[in-house]
Amino acid sequence: PVSAVAERRVGERPQHDLDDDALWGEWLDRACAALGIDRALADVALVHTVSREIAHGFVRPMAPVGPFLIGVALGQRVAQARASGETVGEAEAAALRAELAAALRTTYPA
To answer: Which 3 state secondary structure label does DSSP give 75?
Structure first.
């Protein structure tokens, strides 16, 4: 039998399990709950985008490090906001993630 990869045409975007929210969404919910993370803070698309940018525009081994650094910074910013009595919902978290990703992008080599 021919594999799905072999059947894919050149230039066609591969189908990934991550395209199936039913598959990864439940796991992400469980993972966030197990780690005590607000699910609203998890942005899979941003993690993949930043990882891809770093892997293809800098060096592949640093690809997971960029999203990790964004996550650490996001956690610190959210903790500071909450300590000040501010509410951090999905909209605020999305704005923070975008701000942090933009800041990280300024560090990519030219």
So the answer is: helix
